[in-house]
Amino acid sequence: MNAVAERLLIVEDDPGLTRQLRWSFDQYDPVFAEDRGAAIDQVRRHEPQVVLLDLGLPPEADGIDEGMRALSDILRLAPATKVIVVTGNGDEESAIKAIAAGAYDFYQKPVEIQVVELIIQRAFHIWQLERQNRRLRADADRPLDGLIAISEPMRRIVRQIEKIAPTNATTLLQGDTGSGKEVLARALHRLSPRAEHPFVAINCAAIPEHLLESELFGYEKGAFTGAQKQTLGKVELAEGGTLFLDEIGDMAHGLQAKLLRFLQERVIERVGGRHEIPVDARVVCATHRDLQALIAEGEFREDLYYRVAEITIRIPPLRDRQGDAIAIAKALFERANKEHGRSLRGFSADALAAIEQHGWPGNVRELEHRVNRAVILADGKLIDAEDLGLANAAAEDDDNLLNLRQVRDAAERGALEKSLGRADGNISKAARLLGVSRPAIYDLMRKHGIDTNN
Ligand SMILES: Nc1ncnc2c1ncn2[C@@H]1O[C@H](COP(=O)(O)OP(=O)(O)OP(=O)(O)O)[C@@H](O)[C@H]1O
Q: Which residues form the Sigma-54 factor interaction domain (predicted)?
């Protein structure tokens, strides 16, 4: 944290004393004012961290009213300023009044330069410490840190998140795999009054149905073979905080009914338990699937849909968020460059063009994956399209393709086929290569008519 130049303002109407102070404190390059108006002008112009203020200012050099007004004006304008008031000999009452009004310290005339100097030094020191503190706090208060939103649709989403955060509304984040659903859910939590309480995430697609119930709702000792002790579920662990249910579209029907009950009545029952336990947790769900279509197919309960989608936020795929891919790539690059101890300079022009052109079927996660790999493997000082594994995509036979959608679809299919090929048809491995989840790769295979039994 870099220090700023120290600047002292001396508000004093006695010319003899002013001269003495100027000479004594020239290391601070002091600025001067003789009355309240001039003092305020100097505060505006020079933003001094420390002010030495004589309380007996004209037109009432014998009273303290004008000095007290100057004190309050300065603090209103620049509350962090350390104001040291100078009072008449023995006038403790005024000094105490000034301290009560926000002055940092006081000093009684006659002025002894060495003592005043110590007080001033300490005031600058405290100001620096407080500034550091303010900065650290501001960093912690920026919960959207790390979330990059350059494109208009993403900026709109961030504004929505900021509005929804203080409420308890159950929110559904709908977006393709890797598009940032979890980052947004976390931001929502951190911006909410629940921020001090836990954020508990669970991926409904990753856990087999019979285990998901006990993961979610917990179980009592002896509820089933292996249930050796009472165990709390994710819902209970999120007490006071936020429960993030990822891939809600993949939740089995039976469990949907239990989740609905929790959302309606705000109570749960542990597996093998006999009584209801009230839980106060805000629920945020996410899915890459089209819940309306799932409802039509009878796979998702309509009543649950209306409960989880009190507010729906649709996150567009990365390819539709103009400017985001490059901005996120650059931020990811900085992080990876540091993390892997490399000293690369950035992206070459062809890499940037490839990032803009690529269809990003795996969205930000794919971007993260490619940038990380490129940072580790790049030979030169700049990352080029080849390091990103995008050289072919850029040079693909695009003359034969009519529009952007077709280009993207072709790139998506190409990447899919390549990864399946490289993984010898092993879906999990192919998903890892592409940086997408298993359900997402099945969706992509369906979309491109690729046989899952291949
Ligand atoms: N706008 C963004 N700015 C910076 N990083 C982002 C952004 N969006 C996503 N990321 C990063 O991309 C990765 C994937 O994001 P996230 O896990 O939130 O996606 P998701 O939609 O929840 O994925 P999935 O559907 O596969 O669970 C994370 O590492 C996340 O930090």
A: 147-376
425 located within any domain = yes
Same structural domain, 262 and 122: no
Q: What are phi and psi of 50, to 5 degrees?
A: -125, 140
Question: Is the CB of residue 178 below 6 angstroms from any atom belonging to ligand 1?
Answer: yes
Residue 288 CB–ligand 1 contact under 6 Å: yes
Q: What is the mean pLDDT of residues 372-386?
A: 93
Question: Could you say which of 140, 166, 181 is where a domain stops?
Answer: 140
For residues 312 and 325, membership in a common domain is answered with: no
CATH of the domain at 158: 3.40.50.300
Mutate to test the pocket of ligand 1, among 147, 207, 364 (most ligand atoms within 8 A of CB): 364
- Give the angle subtended at the CA of 75 by the CAs of 74 and 79, to the nearest 5°: 130
Instruction: Give residue-wise pLDDT tens across range 18-75.
Output: 999 999 998 888 999 999 999 999 998 888 999 999 999 988 888 899 999 999 999 9
Determine if ligand 1 sits within 6 Å of the CB of residue 148.
yes
User: Does one domain contain both 373 and 290?
Assistant: no
Residue 51, strand partner residues: 9, 83
Contacts of 148 (CB under 8 A, 6+ apart): 154, 324, 327, 328, 331
pTM of the model: 0.60
Q: Give the three-class secondary structure for 391.
A: helix
145 pLDDT above the threshold of 50: yes
